[in-house]
Amino acid sequence: MASQFGAFTASELYCPKCARAQRVRERLLLILPDGELHEYLCSGCGNSLGQRKTARPGSAFSIPPRPPPRRPAAGPAPSGPLPRRPRGLLS
Ligand SMILES: [Zn+2]
User: Fold this and answer.
1) Range of the domain at 42
2) Among 43, 53, 70, 78, whose Cα sits 20 to 30 Å from the Cα of 60?
3) From the CA of 24, how far away is ligand 1's center (Å)?
């Protein structure tokens, strides 16, 4: 079975105990406030080969933040009447 690089999920990792790349099993290790911590275990010997943190679906972490309210970007039109500065008057 050829290695697939489509979606980046580790299906095989090098296991130092087995001294070869092994298929891994993903195990939910920890639930964090903003996601979950998964652990990759070697399917051959059960050695922990790595961890991956995923954003919890439906949490605020996966929702893109609201775009900031639009500001008039350096417009020449101020929102109020500005007192005109008299010209030619050095103070
Ligand atoms: Zn192993």
Assistant:
1) 12-55
2) 70
3) 9
